[in-house]
Amino acid sequence: MGSLVALGAAPRGVPRRLLGAAVAHARDRGLARLVLRPSPAGAAFYRAAGFSPAGDEIVVLPTGGHGPTGGTT
Fold first, then answer.
1. How far is C-alpha 55 from the geometric centre of its chain's CA atoms?
2. pTM of the prediction?
């Protein structure tokens, strides 16, 4: 498990590129999904990137990969 932090003061487009790299990395590693707890202010950013609500303050992006047991989770 890891963390990704995108600061609001980052130059325009940098947070989106960082998130895209994280999603690509997850797909390359065969991870089934990305799950995160964004701040209320950041939730719209993740929804715009394709993440969906999956509970209180959690958004999920299925990556199409497989979990460690070989099945999607």
1. 15
2. 0.65
> In terms of Cα–Cα distance, which of 44, 48, 16, 22 is closest to 35?
22
- Residue whose pair of structure tokens reads 């707890």 in the numeric block: 37
pLDDT in tens, the chain (73 residues): 566 665 556 677 888 898 899 889 988 998 888 888 888 888 888 888 888 888 766 767 777 766 544 443 3
Classify residue 19 as exposed, middle or buried by CB count within 10 Å of its CB (0-12, 13-18, 19+): buried
- Helix, strand, coil content of the chain in percent (nearest 5): 30, 15, 60
Closest residue by Cα to residue 49 from 3, 13, 11: 13
Cα–Cα distance list, 30 to 20, 46, 58 (Å): 15, 21, 21
